[in-house]
Each structure stands twice: as structure tokens, then as C-alpha cells.
Amino acid sequence: MAVPTGTLHLAAAIDGDGQYQAPYYVELARLAEEGTLDFITLDDTFGPPGPGRGRLDALAVLARVAPATGRIGLVPTVTTTHTEPFHVSSAVATLDWVSRGRAGWRVEVSATEEEARLVGRRPAAPAGELWAEAGEVADVVARLWDSWEDDAEIRDTATGRFVDRDKLHYVDFEGARFSVRGPAIVPRPPQGHPVVAVAATDPVTWQTAARHADVVYLRATSPEEAGRIRDELKRRAVAHGREPGTLTVLASIAVDLADGEGAAGNAPPVTLTETPGGPPLYRGGPVELAELITGWHTADAVDGFHITPVAPRHDLERFVNGTVALLQHRGLFRTFYPGATLRDHLGLSRPAGRYALEREAAR
Amino acid sequence: MSRQHKQIHLAAHFPGVNNTTVWTDPRSRSQIDFDSFEHLARTAERGLFDFFFLAEGLRLREHNGRIHDLDVVGRPESITVLNALAAVTERLGLAATVNATFNEPYELARRLASLDHLSGGRAAWNVVTSSDAFTGENFRRGGFLDRADRYTRAAEFVATARELWDSWPPDATPRPFAHTGRHFTIDGEFGVERSPQGHPVVIQAGDSDEGREFAASAADIIFTRHGSLEAGRAFYADVKRRLARYGRAPEELKIMPGVTLVLGDTAADAQEKAAEIRLQQVSPQTALLTLEQIWGVDLSGYDPDGPLPDIDPDPDSQLTQGRVRHGDPLAVAAKWRALSEEKGLSIRQTVIEASGRQSFIGTPEAVAAQLAEFVAADAADGFILVPHLTPGGLDDFVERVVPLLQERGVFRTAYTGTTLRDHLGLPYPGERG
Fold this sequence. Notes:
The complex is a heterodimer.
Chain A: E1 9-13, H1 22-34, E2 39-42, H2 58-65, E3 73-79, H3 85-98, E4 104-108, H4 113-119, H5 127-146, E5 153-156, E6 161-163, E7 173-174, E8 179-180, E9 195-199, H6 206-212, E10 215-218, H7 223-239, E11 248-256, E12 272-273, E13 281-283, H8 286-298, E14 304-309, H9 312-329, H10 342-346, H11 354-361
Helix pairs in contact in A: 1-2, 1-9, 3-5, 5-6, 6-7, 8-9
Chain B: E1 9-13, H1 34-46, E2 51-54, E3 62-63, E4 66-67, H2 78-85, E5 93-99, H3 105-118, E6 123-128, H4 133-136, H5 147-166, E7 177-180, E8 185-188, E9 201-205, H6 209-218, E10 221-224, H7 229-242, E11 254-263, H8 267-281, H9 284-295, E12 320-321, H10 329-343, H11 347-355, E13 359-362, H12 364-376, E14 382-385, H13 395-407, H14 420-424
Parallel strand pairs in B: 1-2, 1-14, 2-5, 5-6, 6-9, 9-10, 10-11, 11-13, 11-14
Antiparallel strand pairs in B: 3-4, 3-12, 7-8
Helix pairs in contact in B: 3-5, 5-6, 9-11, 10-11, 12-13
């Protein structure tokens, strides 16, 4: 007898090596949207191109994709080490405005000396320190999103006031590495808080993830391993005073659907292969992948999957038209978007602004 | 019609955080919803404008220790909005104002190159600087730069960005770059392939001597307040003369004042509308507040319909924060008093008279003639139009004035290129040797 499980969540990376053309990203985003996936991600690094052809700023790409799509969530990687927290807050809030409530951001750090030299402002630092700072950035960014109450803009012609200044708040944040006075320049975004994601693939990220993330991806090769990490993350979230249900845990897998037409029954048993530095690799057909997803989800190991197609165009197309279609057919995955925002897709409520709550409480 | 006429360049400014925006008008819509940006950008593209221009905010303005609440407040972050607009426009240039004080060259060069790629070569950067510790309170580094350092940092910032863009030659792998200067010491490889324009177009706003020199050395467009015909011609001649010092031809820098427009069916109708708009822009509260910004003291006891105060301004006042102060307050106050006495104007009337920028007011025919005259007389290469309504403020202009400019042969009837450099007739930067 299967354990009762929650809604299945699916997300896909649309990373492209050296892809500079907007239509490439729009095509993949629309494909993922046809599959009613919760969101797409686009990876980024601050740093030099390395052996490849470099890459575009991920938030820029997903802002370009926003008007060309209607429902799918948009989650770029945004690094926190060499950037200004105030700018990060403004850019992610703006992505939420231009997408009408579909923005998220994956928090990431820049730990290398190579990246530090591109800015020349501070030396490289240990990952633990950078992740603590990333947590502070996530914290101040959320405070800035709250610094405008939802009804701060009043347009009161009788008194000539455009805003009610009592509903705009200084955040007065003092971190170990920075301070921010506030309020934000960008009014509170449509989702209140755009969705915060952390790739919790290394224990060094767990504390920040458990405290600040709405979505985490983890790396595991079995449902048992995934369940253990998920339990640990949820335990830490509870220790930070959070409801465990507000943390959506996805398993990250790389997906290669090049082989196998998905002749269910004859296929070899489905396994995941460990890959150095990346998510475990699934190689096989789309039907067996649907079996794997169903199995992990039914075992209540994870809330869903974040897939990275090995060959984005080909594998995402097969994933949507094969795996997702089958999951939908079985009633395990949605066939339409019941809501408009990324928070709606994830079943997360829109948070009330903290300053508005404080003001109410002080009455 | 002859194509010999000097062609006018037009750009659209999205009305933002200032008292030129008449938010009390029932036609005024959101200053933040994407629909508003899309409407104005599509209007500008329908009018075959060169580019769409966004200002920047990094700290909410304060007055007398409190957040200023009379004008439009709140705006999205420019580069992100422009990337989204790249999806709903095809040819229009996309210009973002981004501060050189509170950003770093590598990061900003990367974001601008990304916008240039994603828009197919339509990106522009309006370089501004800030010196005040007030704005710096939102940033890691704080606000320690004095006025002189602002410009040296900005100049080094632009030069460094260009080194980064040039380090990735067309159809080649990136070369390592190393920049050692007073403000930046950075090295590595640039992470974004060379973008369609090579360098996004650089815009600079500057009326001071330093600003003019910086523009002559480093900018493709200068955004100015010198709107009147005489002041415009003097400014134009001065700035164009400076270009030779940097080995640049006069047409490599476009001079574009920010101007407003009021159209009417008759001249009298237009004048009446213009006067009504000015009254909406300068409410009694705004009039007093504008005066306090110059005087630097609390003037709340004064009657906006009465005479100007006879006390002198406090030049060291911190009463107003986050707003650029133009000129020496004692000199401005003396000028305003003289104006008020000469014409017998109240506080509100003086503010209206003294704070307006160049405005073209009249029938569509008259406005088209004036715009053409300014450009033909070398008072400008074109204009950045600042509408007073969000986002429909340029609808009438595009429908009624643009066709008249086209009939006169002074404005394009179709885009002839795809990039902003094409629209502006600017050269493409070659790679460095």
C-alpha cells in the first residue's frame, strides 16, 4: 500500500553551452510550459568562460523569455558573492513584475580566486563563509521585498500624496559583510516574495537552504538516500521556526533519453549513475523514467524532480511528450496550470509582509 | 522630398520618479506594471524612434527626514525591464541608466553585453554617477567618493568595460584581459562572447565642463537639458568642437536634449493645455517643497501663492536627500527672486516659470516645424521626449507629428538597419590591436 503523497512537482534546466540566441531559450521554455512543468532553471556563474564559449546573464535571459511565455516559473541562478544585495533584490523583484508573478532565483556563491580577480574587491573565501553570507543576502533581499507594504501606493488626489510613507519601511540590515538601509526602489513584487531555490548538493549549503529556501534540489541515487537528506533539511527548517511543508524538495537528475523507445517490460532495471560534480545520470527511455519518478514519489522520498536534459532540445522534448504525458495519463501530474504564479504551482501561499504584520501588531 | 535634410533622432523617456509625471490625471496608469512599459515601447517603435530610455533609482528620496510622497515613487530595475521589452519589440534601441559608482565593471559589462545579445544589438547604457553617502547606505562600499573622484571612476569604468568587450574579438576565443588603474585592478577572461554592436551605445548626461569633456572623449550620445534654441546652439558648438581632441568626427556624438511636448488643435488650445499641465505638475505642496530643496530650510509656514522668502538659503543643508542639486543655491535663489520681482510672480508661479525644461507647444504642424528648425540650426541632433502621462503620453505625437516630420523629409519612414548603432549612424567599434 502506497504512502499518501503530495502533489508531484517537476522542473527542468534549459542550460545551453555557448547559446547566445534568445529563440533557443524561448523554444525550450515553451516546450517545458507545454508539459505544465512548475518552472525552468537557467544556470549561471559570475566567472570566466572556461573552456566553453561563455554564457549570458541568466536573469537577463529569463526576463527575455518572460513575455514569450504565460505560466511557467522562471528561476535563474543569481550569485551573491561579488554582487550588491540591493541590486539582487531589485533585479529578482523586477523579474517577478515582468513575468507577472513567475520569478524565482537560485542562490549561488562564487568561491574561486579566478572569480574574485574579475572584480578585484575581495579575495576568495571559504565556501562556509560565503554560504553564510548568501544566507544574509537572502534575508536582506526578503526584507527589501517586504519594505513596501502591498497597499503603499495610494494615489490620493485629495492630499496630493502618491504613496503613504507610513507603509514604506527602512530595513536597517547589518550583516557581517554588508549593511543595507532600504527601503527598496521596486515596489513589493506580485508574489510578495519570489521563490528562493538552493541547490543543496553539498552539506555546506544545508543551513542556508533550510533557513531561506522555498525549493531545494538534492543529489541522491536512491529514494532512501534522498529521503534521509530531505528529512535532515526539514528538521533544520523546523529548527528555524518554519513549517516543514513550505520546503519543496526535488531530486536533481541528469537525463539522457537518447536511447530506448520506452518499450516497457523489456527494459533493463532503471538505475541512476553517479557522475563526478554533477547530478546522477538517468539513461534510458521516457517510460522507464516515468516509472522511476513514480517510484520515488510514491515512496515519499521527494516532492518531485529537477531534471537537466543532457541534450536540451532532444531530451526535454522526449521528457515532455513521453515521461510527462505518461505521468499525466496516470493522474500523477497536472495537465493544466490551476494558478498563475510560481507560488501557485508549488502550492505555496503568498507571504504577508513582515512590516505590515508588525504595524498591525503594534496597534 | 529631398533626403539632404539633416535627419532628426527621436527617443522616448519612460516617465518616472519626478514631478513632471501627472499621476493625478485619470489617464495615468501604473508606473510599474509591464503593460505600461510595453505600451510606451511599442508606441515608440511604431514611431520609428531610435531608442527607449529608462532612468534609475537607488534610494527613495527624502525631504526633511521623511520619504518624499508627492511624486511617483517606485520603479523596476532597468536592464531587466529592457530584456523583457526585447521580446515585444524588434528594432527599438533599449537604453538603461546604470550608476558607475555602485556597480563593478566586470558585472555591468556582462549584463550590458547580455542585453545586446538578447536584443540583437539594441543595447545602450546611460552612465551616471553618484557621490552621496545617502545613496551609499544601500551598498556594500558605502558612498565615499567625492565629486572629482566620481568622474575619474566613471571614465575608468567606461574604459574598462570597453577593454572587456574588446577582449573577445569577433569569431574568436577571448583573450585574457588585465586592467590596472586607480579605481579597478582586475584580470581574467570576459565571460560573454562579443555582442552584435561590439560595444553597447554609451549615453552620458552632462552640462558641466567635466561632463562635456567626458562625453566628448567617451560617449556616443549626450543627454542635455540645454533645450532653448540659443543655449542649445552654444552647447552643441562647444561639445562638437571638443571631439577633435579625441580624434573623433562631429557626427560620432549625438546631442539630444530632453524635452516635453504639448499638442493642441489650435495654438491657443495647446497653450491652455500646457498651462493646465504645469499647474498639475507643480501643486502648492510641490511648489513649497521645490523651494525648500533650494533654500535647504523648512518653509512650511510660507504661502505658495505669496512672495518668495527674503531669508537666504543654507548652502550646506541636508534637508533634501537623493535628489541632484543643480548649481549654487545662493545663486539660484537670487535668480529666482529677480524673476519673481520682475514679473510679479508668486512662489508657485515662480517655480512653474523657472523649473520648466524646453517644451514644444502648439499644433502638430507647429511642433513639427519647431523640431525640424532646432535640428537644422544645429541646436540638437534629436530629442529625448519626456511625456507627462504614463504610458499613453506619446500616442498623439506618434500619430500626428511623426507623419509631418516624414513629409518634411527630416525623419525616417522605415528603419534601415537592425541595431541601435545603425539607427544613430554610429560606427561599429573595431577590435583593439
